[in-house]
Specification:
single chain, about 100 residues, alpha/beta, 3 helices, 3 strands
Length: about 100
């Protein structure tokens, strides 16, 4: 190994050592949104749910979806009852996150 590569390698190893382990992340991610034909469906099925499952499965987490009306879903995220709101709302509704 050349001398010029050694500091970069040591810095890389040090940064990886500082990364939190899997236990530092939540084991369950709670998403919420209203039913949206073509994108979400009953029982946690549909495009958005499948994407969330795929993304968080990489970390070993599970995803649970709660179907709720738009305003209630935003309040749930704001109050910590849900982690992610997977739908867009109109800016004038006063419930922006």
């Amino acid at each position: 190994m050349t001398r010029s590569c050694r500091p970069v390698l040591l810095l890389t190893v040090a940064l990886f050592a500082l990364l939190p382990g899997p236990s530092a992340f939540p084991a369950e991610i709670v998403t919420t949104s209203p039913y949206w034909t073509g994108f979400t469906g009953p029982g946690g099925r549909g495009l958005y749910h499948d994407l969330m499952q795929a993304v968080f499965a990489l970390r070993g987490d599970t995803v649970r979806h709660l179907e709720a009306p738009a305003k209630r879903g935003l309040v749930m995220v704001r109050e910590g009852q849900a982690d992610i709101y997977t739908c867009r709302t109109a800016a004038g509704e006063g419930f922006e996150l």
